[in-house]
């Protein structure tokens, strides 16, 4: 039964969701995870990339007293998230060893004064904060990319293993671990190492239905890529390669073909890598050709495609990399080129490593995914323990399916053999038993006496192996890599054994018989309004010194395009528009929409006011300026936001000789801005100036001062 306190909590978190993040509804599991944290309980959240993990600790941080300490692996990721939080009117900062001592001291002061709601820190830098942690109010600990703590995971980082002490040092503070990629072994290891054995586990669907999954033979890859990119002109995308040399070669060839691409790899200087990454985030470079290290720290929402030039070494890595596309929920395309040469090269990389057998098992599973003859989404989700019973209709297999046959009887034989082997044996032994192999491994264990021994002896070893792989991909079977690769039955297998559920298997074809082409998604061309909104977004982002998606995601722009808001009240209903963004951006975006519509309807505030003809809104402000009113007085008289009046005055200063911005800024302030301009000679946008003045001079004064200096020069 819901009590009054629960109702108040629900009302409060919904209010924070709309005010700061601009959303009306939570995504799956977000609300439950947030409520769990607000109750002071630990949690493990497994959510797909783009599923809204960050909100699960950012919103509780706003609702609770104190500062949330967020452990995150990459500085670039911290900066992007802090920029996005600050754009939403939330006090946040990041801390690392590369910052100047003055900047670090400023963060320490803000922490001690309780001025920060969230502080991001890398695991390697957490020890630097230890003297301070016991002296401040901490609301929660959030461990992002938590799979990095586990040697079972695909991106193990030793510094993460030291995070287990947090629960010992602060037993009463809730700890939430979050990741997008963790199989069952990794999940268990995360909980054990972080010492949160009783944490509630929240597993959101790994399904990203907006991603089209596509696997093609690895012949003539550059020719295929060039053809593929014709459908994605000026759209952001990433090409992943195995080697540094490949990134440079492919980037050069793409540039020669008329595309704008940059190579990215660890051999470049940190300054060069930062520049390339910044250009990509800010839409100055549409294509990055990179090694797999690229993208982990990027929260860019409008990546429309990801190409794997070479096959990844495991499904976790593949899933994380394709997850960097379509984070705004719009259609995206994940293309993987597969060749056995890649498999051989990856095997060489793994030879002699401490976890060689484990890595090889995961590589084999990746290879099985690439060779799948049934719905790829089923195979992908099954790997993470999630079972999809219907074909997805959004992968190359579903859009160009192979020839199937009724494989129910064969599937029953395979399931029966695994059942009689008590789920203790790997694929090789299951094959030997089904084909009636007469070898020592079978005879020593007495498996020649079980009922299913030789039950599929008429099927060749290779074909039977492929059929079992199809059953793995369909979610009928499960493989436990961390338990010597043993095969287990899933609930779906029980329906096949005991309820005679039908199974469709694909005929095994020779390589030269396999389909040569698959359907591509026909992407609708962006409308002119969407392009205009993107241009405005880019201008505003450059002015503020932040990535474009921090202003608005593509999904928000699409929502504007669809809803065509004409007032601030209507603009507030747009996806991603919270209170801070409503005040900052309503006026310029509504103006673009109004001009595009070719109407005389001008943006109106929530309170009704007399309509004005197109162009009259600036003239109304000009009249008030000529009467000598201040900015606040003009805003009150016109029932507009002060930010709107400031925008009008900036426009009028450029177009009307009688408007002088010196009225709103002192000579001392202008002189200080002049000095800052001489210091920040290579800086773009207003943000460097804002930071130069330690955030004490507002953006509008900086804008006015620079405009005056430019006009005088």
UniProtKB/TrEMBL annotation:
Domain Helicase ATP-binding: 34-200
Tagged with keyword tRNA processing: no
Cofactor(s) needed: Zn(2+); Mg(2+)
GO biological process terms, semicolon-separated: DNA recombination; DNA repair; DNA replication; SOS response
Ranges for region Disordered: 600-619
Xref: Gene3D superfamilies: HRDC domain, P-loop containing nucleotide triphosphate hydrolases, Winged helix-like DNA-binding domain superfamily/Winged helix DNA-binding domain
Gene Ontology MF annotations: 3'-5' DNA helicase activity; ATP binding; DNA binding; four-way junction helicase activity; hydrolase activity; metal ion binding
InterPro entries per record: DEAD/DEAH_box_helicase_dom (IPR011545), DNA_helicase_ATP-dep_RecQ (IPR004589), DNA_helicase_ATP-dep_RecQ_bac (IPR006293), Helicase_ATP-bd (IPR014001), Helicase_C-like (IPR001650), Helicase_HTH (IPR029491), HRDC-like_sf (IPR010997), HRDC_dom (IPR002121)
Catalytic function, reaction form: Couples ATP hydrolysis with the unwinding of duplex DNA by translocating in the 3'-5' direction
Domain HRDC: start-end pairs: 523-603
Keyword Nucleotidyltransferase: no
The organism's place on the tree of life at top rank: Bacteria
Domain Helicase C-terminal positions: 221-374
Keyword annotations of the record: ATP-binding, DNA damage, DNA recombination, DNA repair, DNA-binding, Helicase, Hydrolase, Isomerase, Metal-binding, Nucleotide-binding, Zinc
Name used for this protein in its record: DNA helicase RecQ
């Amino acid at each position: 039964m819901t009590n009054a306190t629960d109702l108040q909590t629900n009302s409060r978190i919904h209010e924070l969701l709309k005010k700061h993040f601009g959303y009306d509804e939570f995504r799956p599991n977000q609300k439950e995870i947030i409520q769990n944290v607000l109750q002071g309980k630990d949690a493990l959240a497994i959510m797909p990339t783009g599923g809204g993990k960050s909100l699960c600790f950012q919103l509780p941080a706003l609702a609770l007293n104190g500062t949330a300490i967020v452990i995150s692996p990459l500085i670039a990721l911290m900066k992007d998230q802090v920029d996005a939080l600050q754009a939403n009117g939330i006090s946040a900062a990041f801390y690392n060893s590369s910052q100047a001592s003055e900047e670090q001291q400023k963060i320490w002061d803000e922490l001690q004064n309780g001025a920060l709601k969230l502080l991001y820190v890398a695991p390697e830098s957490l020890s630097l904060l230890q003297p301070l942690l016991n002296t401040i109010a901490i609301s929660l600990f959030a461990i992002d990319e938590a799979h990095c703590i586990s040697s079972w995971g695909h991106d193990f980082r030793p510094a993460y293993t030291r995070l287990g002490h947090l629960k010992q040092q602060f037993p009463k503070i809730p700890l939430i671990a979050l990741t997008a990629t963790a199989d069952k072994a990794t999940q268990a290891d995360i909980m054990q190492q972080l010492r949160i054995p009783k944490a509630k586990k929240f597993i959101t669907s790994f399904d990203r239905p907006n991603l089209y999954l596509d696997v093609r033979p690895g012949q003539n890859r550059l020719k295929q890529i060039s053809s593929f990119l014709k459908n994605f002109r000026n759209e952001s995308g990433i090409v992943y390669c195995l080697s540094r040399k490949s990134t440079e070669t492919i980037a050069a060839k793409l540039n020669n073909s008329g595309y704008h691409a940059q190579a990215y790899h660890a051999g470049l200087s940190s300054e060069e890598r930062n520049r390339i990454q910044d250009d990509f985030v800010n839409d100055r470079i549409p294509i990055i050709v990179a090694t797999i290290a690229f993208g982990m720290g990027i929260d860019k929402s409008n990546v429309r495609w990801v190409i794997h030039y070479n096959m990844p070494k495991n499904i976790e890595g593949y899933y994380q990399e394709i997850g960097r596309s379509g984070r705004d929920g719009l259609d995206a395309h994940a293309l993987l080129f597969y060749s056995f040469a890649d498999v051989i090269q990856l095997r060489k990389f793994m030879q002699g490593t401490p976890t060689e057998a484990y890595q090889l098992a995961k590589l084999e599973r990746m290879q099985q995914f690439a060779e799948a003859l049934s719905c790829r989404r089923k195979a992908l989700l099954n790997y993470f323990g999630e079972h999809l019973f219907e074909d997805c209709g959004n992968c190359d297999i579903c859009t160009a399916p192979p020839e199937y046959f009724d494989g129910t009887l064969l599937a029953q034989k395979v399931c029966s053999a695994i059942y009689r082997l008590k789920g203790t044996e790997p694929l090789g032994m299951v094959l030997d038993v089904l084909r009636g192999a007469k070898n020592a491994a079978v005879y020593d264990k007495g498996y020649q006496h079980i009922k299913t021994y030789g039950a599929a002896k008429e099927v060749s070893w290779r074909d039977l192996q492929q059929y079992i792989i199809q059953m793995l991909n369909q979610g009928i079977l499960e493989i436990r890599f961390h338990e010597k690769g043993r095969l287990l039955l899933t609930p779906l297998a029980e329906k096949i054994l005991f309820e005679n559920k039908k199974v469709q298997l694909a005929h095994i074809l020779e390589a030269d018989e396999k389909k040569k082409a698959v359907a591509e998604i026909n992407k609708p061309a962006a409308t002119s309004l969407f392009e205009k909104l993107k241009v405005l977004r880019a201008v505003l982002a450059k002015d503020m010194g932040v990535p474009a998606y921090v202003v608005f995601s593509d999904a928000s722009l699409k929502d504007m395009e669809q809803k065509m808001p004409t007032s601030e009240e209507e603009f507030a209903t747009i996806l991603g528009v919270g209170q801070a963004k409503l005040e900052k951006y309503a006026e310029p975006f509504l103006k673009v929409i109004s001009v595009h519509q070719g109407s005389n309807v001008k943006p109106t505030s929530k309170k009704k006011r007399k309509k004005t003809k197109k162009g009259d809104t600036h003239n109304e402000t000009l009249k008030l300026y000529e009467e000598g009113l201040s900015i606040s007085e003009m805003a009150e008289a016109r029932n507009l936001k002060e930010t709107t009046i400031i925008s009008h005055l900036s426009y009028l200063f450029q177009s009307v000789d009688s408007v002088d911005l010196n009225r709103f800024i002192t000579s001392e302030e202008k002189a200080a801005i002049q000095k800052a301009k001489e210091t920040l000679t290579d800086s773009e946008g207003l943000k460097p100036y804002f930071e130069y003045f330690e955030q004490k001079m507002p953006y509008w004064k900086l804008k006015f001062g620079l405009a005056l200096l430019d006009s005088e020069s």
